[in-house]
Amino acid sequence: MTTCETLKLTKKFGSNIALDEVSVSFKEGSVVGLIGLNGSGKTTLLRHLTGMILPTSGQCLTFGKQAHQLESPDLERIGFVHQEQRLLEWFTVSQQLDYLSRFFKRWDADLQKRLLRDFDLNPKARIGALSPGNLQKLSVIAGACHRPDFLIMDEPASSMDPIARKAFLALLFELLESENQTVVISSHVLTDIEKVVDHVACLHQGRLIEDMPLDELRESFSEWNLIGATTLPVDVTYSLDCQSYQGGIKLIVRNPTETGQALAKRLGAVWQSRPLNLDEIFPLLVGK
Amino acid sequence: MSRLYFSLLWRPGTLLWLFWIAGINMGFSNFDFGRQILLAVTPLFGGLLLAQPVRDLQSRDMSWVLPSLRRRLFPSLIVMLALCSAITVLALQPKLPFVVGFGLAFMFASIGSSLKTDQVAFVQFRPNFSLVSWSLCFAACVRFDLVLHMAATLPIQTLLVSTLVTCIYLHHVTSIATHRTLMQENFFSLLNSLNPKALGTYTRQIRASRSSNRVHSFGWVHFGMGTAAWIRASYLESFGYLGFAHFMFRFVLIVGLITLGLGVSFARGIWGSLIPLLVLVFAFQYPLRVRATLPRPMARKNLWRCVLWASWVETIVLMSIVVALLSLFEFWKPPVIQVSEQFRFAYESPRNLWPWLASTFTFLPISQYARRRYGFSISSILFVLAISFFLTTGYTWLLSKGTADFSPIARTCLMVLGSLTSHTLYVFLIRNYAKSVDIKPNST
Fold first, then answer.
1. pTM higher than 0.90
2. Does the structure's ipTM exceed the value 0.90?
C-alpha cells in the first residue's frame, strides 16, 4: 500500500525548475532516504508531500488525497521535521512541546520525556536561546512524539553532535518497530541514514535519477581490484571509473555484463571485489 | 549618477519622504501658519528619511573602514538633500528669495539627516550634539515665525548662518568618527530602518526575552480544529500576553498623543487624514497570525479561516480604540496651553471625522491583505502608505464633498456599500490566496 506518491510532479519558481516531472512513491512501512546535492529539489519535494507547496503541474497524493487538500485528521498522521524549524522563541522547550501536544489527539509523553533525556535537552531552556543543534533536536521531538504514521524529516541531524546523532538513530530504529510507519529522510550525512533506510531516491537538478531499494542499489555498484592487470580493454563499458596503480587497476563498476572473475581471467589477473557504501555511491549517481 | 543611485535606490524606503510631504501638505494647506512651518518640517522629514542609506552603513560592522567612505557618501547625500529642499521651496513658494528659502530648507534637511544617523545613539554616545539638534529643531519649529522674519529682514546673514549649520551637520552625518562610535549598536540602529530582516531579528529577540509561562492556564486539553481555537492560537503566537499589552499600549499611546497634538486649533485639518495612516500601518505591522509551519495539523482551510477571523478581530480592536479615544477627548477637554499670541495648544473636536473613519474601515482590509500577501517588504509598505494617503483621501472626499447633495440616507448607504464591498472582496482574496499560495517555511 502506498502512503504517498507523486505523478509527474513539476514545480517551477519563476524560470527556475525545482522539480521536473518527478514520479516517486513511498510505500507504507518503508524508510526512504532522499539524497541529492544542494539545490537538487529535496526540500521542495518534501514540502509537496504535506501540501505546503503546490505543484506547477502533476500531482502529489498523500494518503490517497491531493496533498494540498489534506484535512486536519490526515495531517495529524504526519510528522514533519523542517530543516530550519522556527518555533515560538519566547517559550521554553517544555512549554513548546506542551503547546504542540495539544493539537494532537495522541501524544506520547513518555517518549517526549525520554527523548529530552537522550538528547540532553534542558526542558527549561528558552527556545530563542537554543543553538541550531539543540533546535534540531527539539524539532525531531516535536515531529515524532505524536507517533505519526508518516514521518518526513528534512536534514534532521545536520547540526547535531555525534552523540545526539546516535540518539536520533536510536529513535529512528524505535519508530521503525512499528510496521506501518513510513519515514522519508533527506540528509547529507549518508553514513547515518544508510543504517536505517531500506530505499533510496536520488534527485539531481530537479529530476529523479534513482529510485530503488538500498540493497539493490548497493549490489549494483562495486569496486573491483584487478591485481596484475595493466590496461583495461575497451569493451568494458560498464566501468564508471578506472584507476591504475603499480601492480594492478581498480574499477568502479555498475551492473557489469560479465563477472569479475571472467574479466580477471581475460586479463590474466587476480580479482578482488568490495561493495560500496552510500557515501561512495552518491557521487557516482550525480556524476561528480 | 552612480552615487545618486546608491543613495536613492539602495533603500527604496527612502522615497517615503514623498508621502510625508504629500500628507503634511494636505493637512496644512488651508492654514497660513501651517504653510510656513512646512518649510522646516518637510525638509526635516526628508532629511530623516534620505539619511537612511547612511544609517544602514553605520549599522554594518566595520563599515567605517571602507575606503573613502566619506568622500563617496558626501556628494550623493548633498544632491538628495538639495533635491528635497528645492522641491519643498518650489512647492510652497514662501515669501522669501529662493536662495534664502532654499538655504533654510537645506539646513533643516541636514539637521534631519543628522538626527537620523544619531537617533538612538544620542543617549549613549553624543548626548550634547543630539540635544542641541533636537532643541534647535524644536525651537525653530515652534517659533518658525521668528526664523522667517529674520530670513526676510536679514537674508544674507540668514543664508550664512544656515550654510554654516548645514556644513556642521553634514560633516557630522558622514563622519568616520560617527560610524566608528556607532558600530556597536547594530541591533538598535536597525530598529527603524524598514529592514524586514532586521525587524524580524528585533521581533525575535524581543519575544525571546519575553517571559510567558501561561500555556498551562489555557486549560486546553486538546485544541480541536475549530476556528475559535486557531484564533486563540494566533493570539498567543502573535503576541503572547505581554506582547498584546505592548501592542495595545503602543497604539493607544500613539493615537492618543496624536489626537491631542493634532487636535490643536491650527492643525485640525490634518487629524482626519492621519487616522487611516495610523490604523492601516498598525494593521500592517502587527497582524494576528499563526505560524504556518509549526509541526501540527493545520490544514489550508484552517489557515485561511484563521487569517480571516484574525483580520476581523484586528479591525474591531483598532477601530474601537480610535473611536474610544476620540470619545474620551470629546468628553474630557484637555487644558489650553498658550505659547505665544498667535500660537496656542487648545484641543478642539475634529470636524467631519466620520468620513475618515468610514474610509479607514473600508480600506483596512487592503492593508491586511498586503501584509499577508506580500509580507513585510518595502514595496508593500509603500503600497499601504499610498493607499493611506491617496485612496482614503479620495474616498473621504467622495463621502463628504463629492456626495454633498445626497441625502444622509443615500450617503450612509454608499458608505455601507463601500465597506461591504471591500470586506467581501477581502474574504475572496484571502480564500484564493490560501488555496493558491506556497506556504513558505516559517511564514505566518
1. no
2. no
